[in-house]
Description:
This protein is an alpha+beta fold. It has three helices and two strands, in the order ααβαβ. The longest helix is centred in the N-terminal third of the chain and has 11 residues, at 2-12. The two termini are 24 Å apart.
Amino acid sequence: MRPEVEELLDVSGIANRTILTGLRRDVCRMLAAMDVFLLTSLWEGLPRVIPQAMAMRVPVSPMKLMGLLK
């Protein structure tokens, strides 16, 4: 999925203002630096990062995952 996201960023003209971090262990530090959080996973068993981002008042934009948009 990463190549598709990178291509969309290039096409939209925001690739130079976007960082795709991959797996990180310092989630709170990363969230504090974000303007918006985009969860692009196709499947998440327990997406803890969404309530973490919300707790830090970072706008969250999840993809259509089962149960996440409720």
